[in-house]
Write a structure and sequence with these properties.
This protein has 461 residues and is of the alpha/beta class. The chain folds into two domains: 280 residues, Aminopeptidase, CATH 3.40.630.10; 124 residues, Alpha-Beta Plaits, CATH 3.30.70.360. The protein contains 14 helices and 20 strands. Strands 1-2-6-3-7-18 form a six-stranded mixed β-sheet. Strand 4 and strand 5 form a beta hairpin. The chain is globular, with a radius of gyration of 24 Å. The two termini are 21 Å apart. It binds ligand BES and manganese (II) ion (MN). Manganese (II) ion (MN) binds next to loops.
Length: 461
């Protein structure tokens, strides 16, 4: 087959079959009972890397044998050519029919031009679009003019603890001129976007207790500060009525939204509003009044209560005064905020406002991650823009995404430049029920990565 673009088009049906084969493997990294599935997927991916012509491929076991990395390399462009590193993750979030799925979560189901399955968009779409782009290049008459490394993580959805240690210990394994982080979402099926920012993250658990055990609320109620009530009172003081975080120092280092951000994000607003109406569909938009939707989601930090637990919630009545309650909290961070410092500010604030009638125990979770802000004017970004324009026939707009990809910060340390390329949508419902992709975005994603590799090699050999 003469060129990679035509090869990909000719093999699209087989590519789709293989993508579905990967989707069927339950690579849930947070659940230890799926460790064997994750390991099986890693071997499957390694075999695919070798089959498509990568020169080396390795499954790298992580401590305790869980959630391996898969690393593939093709260095046929020679030592003087630049190297591109493609990063994706093949692990997924848990999913059960009972969560509200209309089909089996791990059985790919095609309906009305969409493919439904856990991991469809986050992030096996990216794993397969990129591997199939590499396959198309390695099957073509002309070899790529850049060397290619592919790293597939199996632990992204459960904290990326081990990959950071791996990069720190073996920086040369992932070293590259350009790192392409392939994860996240574009704005609309027909409107590609380039993500030039990601938010960072800091997490903690807040445990509140008072009596030494659950009590009869008749015997003791009215004499003890109910831990659930105390927890809610603390949580109530974490934001003001405008949605601004009330923690002193929280915004100290926050990088301002610049005129360039404003101009770029203005173009994103209508698409994002349409996605909000579809995916969120709450009674009204909420948040900091002086920032528009794309700024709130991408350029402003948040403090979010992710879960709260305490007391009795079973059938009927139980007149109990609970011994304790707890909440899980995460902060999304923007550039210049240090995760450790933000955690310290939140902990200090909670200790200051906590009433003396309860015991407060705050447990920060390591390691957190800094935000990422990429240069929209760099060469790598221009190559990515060309790739989207080729595949979609429309120029991308520039967005700051609200999610976090902790590995992006680490890749920036070992790569000359970083770009983020996504082929899914927010309405692909990552992490939720009925996760899906538009099938056409799988084909377009493959074409985009092919073009990206093409552009990076332009003017060489
Ligand atoms: N694909 C997401 C990251 C993402 C989301 C990028 C939205 C851009 C936009 C990834 O799989 C993910 O869910 N990351 C976690 C990281 C966390 C566990 C540290 C996240 O953002 O919550
Ligand atoms: Mn995810």
């Amino acid at each position: 087959m003469s060129n990679p673009y035509a090869y990909a088009k000719a093999n699209q049906n087989r590519f789709l079959e293989e993508y579905q084969d990967l989707l069927r493997i339950r690579t849930i990294s947070t659940q230890p009972q799926h460790a064997a599935d994750v390991a099986r997927a890693a071997e499957w991916l390694k075999a695919m890397m070798l089959r498509i012509g990568m020169k080396r491929a390795e499954v790298i076991l992580m401590p305790e044998g869980r959630c391996p990395l898969v690393l593939g390399e093709w260095d046929g462009a020679g030592p003087d050519a630049p190297t591109v590193l493609i990063y994706c993750h093949y692990d997924v979030q848990p999913a059960e029919v009972a969560d509200g799925w209309d089909s089996e979560p791990f059985e790919p189901t095609i309906k009305d031009g969409r493919l439904y399955c856990r991991g469809a968009v986050d992030s096996k779409l990216h794993v397969m679009a990129n591997l199939k782009a590499v396959e198309s290049w390695l099957a073509a008459a002309d070899a790529p003019k850049v060397n290619i490394k592919v790293v597939l993580e199996g632990e992204e959805e459960s904290g990326s603890e081990n990959i950071n240690a791996f990069i720190a210990a073996h920086p040369e394994r992932l070293a590259a001129d350009i790192a392409m982080i392939s994860d996240g979402a574009i704005l609309a099926p027909d409107q590609p976007s380039l993500t030039y920012g990601l938010r960072g993250i800091a997490a903690l658990e807040l445990h509140v207790s008072a009596p030494i055990s659950d009590l009869h609320s008749g015997h003791w109620g009215g004499s003890v500060h109910n831990p659930i009530q105390a927890l809610c009172e603390i949580i109530e003081q974490l934001h003001d009525e405008n949605g601004t975080v009330s923690v002193p120092g929280f915004y100290d280092d926050v990088a301002a939204v610049t005129a360039q951000d404003r101009a770029l994000l203005e173009q994103v607003a209508p698409y994002l509003q349409a996605e909000w109406d579809d995916v969120v569909a709450a009674p009204a938009v909420w948040g900091e009044a002086e920032y528009n939707l794309p700024e709130r989601l991408g350029a402003r930090p948040t403090l979010e209560i992710n879960g709260i637990q305490g007391g009795y919630t079973g059938a009927g009545m139980k007149t109990v005064l609970p011994a304790g309650a707890f909440a899980k909290i995460t902060c999304r961070l923007v550039p210049r905020q240090d995760p450790a410092r933000v955690l310290q500010c939140v902990m200090d604030h909670i200790h200051n406002i906590a009433p003396e009638t309860v015991t407060v125990d705050i447990r920060p979770s390591e390691p957190g991650a800094e935000a990422v802000l990429l240069d929209v004017e760099g060469r790598a970004m221009a190559a990515a823009a060309q790739a989207y324009t080729h595949a979609w026939g429309v120029e991308p707009v520039y967005e700051r995404s609200g999610g976090s990809v902790p590995i992006c910060v680490e890749c920036a340390k070992v790569a000359g430049a970083v770009v983020i390329m996504s082929y899914g949508l927010k309405s692909g419902r990552a992490h939720g029920p009925n996760e899906n992709i538009y099938l056409q975005n799988f084909a377009k994603g493959i074409q985009a990565t092919i073009k990206f590799i093409d552009v990076l090699g332009e003017g060489r050999g």
